[in-house]
Amino acid sequence: MKYQEILQEIHEEIKPFKGEGQIATYIPELATVDPDKYGICLHCFDGQEYTLGDYEEKFSIQSISKVLTLSLAVSKIGERIWERVDVEPSGDPFNSLVQLEYEQGIPRNPLINSGAIVVADILVSILDDPKEDFLKFIRSICGNESINFNPKVAASEKATGFRNAALANMLKSFDNIKNDVDTVLDFYFHQCSLEMTCQELSRTFLLFANHGTQYGGTEQILPRRLGKRINAIMQTCGFYDEAGEFSFRVGLPGKSGVGGGIAAIYPQQYSVAVWSPRLNPKGNSVLGMKSLELLTTKTGYSIF
Ligand code: DON
């Protein structure tokens, strides 16, 4: 497959849509990013990497981190996690509160904010030094020691995170948060502030394309059956109330973040990460979605 040519074609064909969408401003620090950045990196199973644009520039991965915290939690406690968080699409915005009350404090899935806050609570309970141990986990999967949080983004989120505080307190009222609410939120805000490049993200997500085995190595980070579960959750819940649309248009398991990143995988073939900060009204990158739709159209391959 001529992936480099395909990436060039995609870059040409998305040009008419360049000004569409808005950068996320509800986290003030995210509003400082150049909205016209664009990068993409595709990493194949044969070891080849195909890249274009700002693929070496760090950006805030935001909710993409939810897949990574979920992976660390399931690698530690296995299937017991589903007692505290469900695996159904929510059909609601990522920060919605409504379902949580009538569903008795059990979040619909681990990739919406309420579910990710429960996963954060689990990690705070089981890790000795939660933030450092999480960083170590990502660095070892990606093979890159430079990966870090952005303290400014974490602080900016904390200062404006009233909805997340509401979700955490609601979860606590149903006894689905076991630790101090502020400690859990501090971890959650830091995980969202994680900065990675498209290249680092695609290398990291190779784990999910490879049924739980890390990039360039042989270590089985996740048992195969849990890798399958995480891919299924990405497919059904990775884009909030646009998960159906992403499946329909792209047809790959993936996850978005309000920093404008999207990571997706084609099992046993490749992982891909794309970054473009302008978002559609549902909080997903406009050019990111278009790029991946063109990728599966042009290659003729998706999981469907
Ligand atoms: O909790 C928040 O609002 C952000 N830290 C993460 C939201 C996010 O990335 C949703 N993604 N599309």
Automatic annotation (TrEMBL):
E.C. code: 3.5.1.2
Keywords tagged on the record: Acetylation, Hydrolase
Reactions this protein catalyses: L-glutamine + H2O = L-glutamate + NH4(+)
Spans traversing the lipid bilayer: none
Gene Ontology molecular function terms on file: glutaminase activity
A Pfam family reported for this protein in Swiss-Prot or TrEMBL: Glutaminase
Sequence positions that bind substrate: S63, N113, E157, N164, Y188, Y240, V258
Keyword Acetylation: yes
Enzyme class: hydrolase
Family statement drawn from the similarity comment of this UniProt entry: Belongs to the glutaminase family.
NCBIfam families linked: Gln_ase, PRK00971.1-1, PRK00971.1-2
UniProt cross-references to HAMAP family, sorted A to Z: Glutaminase
PANTHER family for this protein: GLUTAMINASE
Quaternary structure (record): Homotetramer.
Protein name per UniProt: Glutaminase
Record organism: Agaribacillus aureus
Lineage: Bacteria, Pseudomonadati, Bacteroidota, Cytophagia, Cytophagales
Gene transcribed to yield this protein: glsA
